[in-house]
Amino acid sequence: MITVNPFVDNVLQIAPAYIQGFLILMVIFTVGGVILDMMHKKNVKFFFNNAKKAKLSATKSVSTGEKAAIIVKTLAHDVATSAEFCGVTRRITHLLGMYGTILFWVSSAVMIFSASSTSTIYPMLWHIGAIMTCVGGYWFWFIQRVDVRAEGNNWSRIVFADLFVLSLVTTSTFGLLWSYFQSANSNGLATLFFIMFVISNVALFGGVYWSKFAHMFYKPGAAIQKHLAEADGSRDDLPEPADLPKQFGLGIKRSEPQNY
Amino acid sequence: MSTFVYMTRCDGCGHCVDICPSDIMHIDKLIRRAVNIEPNFCWECYSCVKACPQNAIDVRGYADFAPMGHKVRVLREEEKGVISWKIKFRNGHMKSFVSPITTKPWGKYIPKLAEKDVPNKDAHDNNRLYGEPTYLKTGKVPVSDTGVPLMAKIGKLKQGVYY
């Protein structure tokens, strides 16, 4: 199952052109949703206003080369390793979800647009990505979610904030189940899970405007702006670090939050 | 006149939720970031501002603390044992302060109250708090006939926080 491209000879015998059209439609949904989200939340306006304010309170100028180095460093550290998360387990779940989703989407696109390819690499990456997303997503869903861990709600209680994570994990889950039952020649269940997979994709990409999908675009922007502000001395108006020796060492590192 | 959160900086870690004495810092139901749910109940204790590891919380302070349009930003450095403050006035003028969190190694000299004897009835009914003479060192301070500490006779107090 893991080395088979599930989009080829799929259970409903849908022609590759239709699947390609569906993928393009999902991309249009994503781009449209993100643009509407930017217009509604005014994220980009906020970033530009913030950059203007930072420029006014900058104490030194940062060259283009330095800026490029900061951006590369931020992408390599803050973004690629989800460095902003304080909790170790929360960071692991985010990394699993992030890399799993990237693998899943990239390999989906490759498999859909090169259906004639016999390479087993992309089907394997597709399945591994889906499994990683499921592990990270369900770990977050059942244990780490603030509604469950801190507020004591049942894991089955669904609120609007769950639209993104839930559609993400259901897409991967139904994708895996569809692939499994298709390989096992169980056509009834394969058809059911294929339809669920399509519906989950529509919810995930069609719900961009209402979910936190767009965070994957503006969060890296915020991290870059934070580090540029540190470099030009504006520091978001934060005080400079005190010119004092480390008296007490790392042993007094603040305690981890108990609830989140 | 209360705390507010920069959504782009907040990662929803919950330090502010844990520490808020008014229990008004919550995690937003939609975007899972911190939010002050009841701004008019915020007494600007700055607990969440200092606790935030992302420096994502800011305060619109009262006009008697600093003129309107100002900004107060805080940086907490536990390993140095200090908290730095920067007040930026609306005309661009800035004031910076550094104050100690503690002057003793972290975690030491904390009274182990659980190991102490249970207060007797006299101590229980007394106006003084349990352990007050010992921990505030008021036992060493000369007091007037009415029990008020005579501060003039204490001499120079040491700086910092003592347990």
Folded structure, characterized:
The complex is a heterodimer of chains A (260) and B (163). With 260 residues, chain A is mostly helical. Chain A has one domain (16-50, 62-232). Helices cover 65% and strands 0% of the residues of chain A. Chain A is built from nine helices and no strands. Chain A has helices at residues 16-41, 43-56, 64-79, 88-113, 121-144, 146-149, 163-183, 187-206, 215-231. Chain A is elongated. Chain A starts with 15 loop residues before the first helix and ends in a 29-residue tail after the last helix. In chain A, 28% of the residues are buried. The longest helix of chain B is centred in the first third of the chain and has 5 residues, at 15-19. Chain B has helices spanning 15-19, 47-51, 121-125, 132-135, and strands at residues 3-5, 25-27, 34-36, 57-59, 71-77, 82-88, 94-100. In chain B, 12% of the residues lie in helices and 20% in strands. Chain B is built from four helices and seven strands, in the order E-H-E-E-H-E-E-E-E-H-H. Chain B is an alpha+beta fold and 163 residues long. Chain B is extended and about 55 Å long. Chain B has two domains: 3-100, Alpha-Beta Plaits; 103-163, no CATH class. Chain B has a three-stranded antiparallel sheet. At the A-B interface, helix 2 and helix 9 of A face helix 1, strand 5 and strand 6 of B.
As a whole number of angstroms, the C-alpha radius of gyration of chain A is 22 Å
**First and last CA, distance of chain A:** 37 Å
Cα shape of chain A: elongated
Average of per-residue pLDDT values of chain A: 89
Q: Helical percent range of chain B?
A: 10-25%
Count the strands of chain A?
Answer: 0
Task: Please tell me the total number of domains of chain B.
Answer: 2
- Looking at the chains present, what oligomeric state does this protein adopt? heterodimer
Strand content of chain B: 15-25%
Coarse structural class of chain B: alpha+beta
Residue-averaged pLDDT of chain B: 79
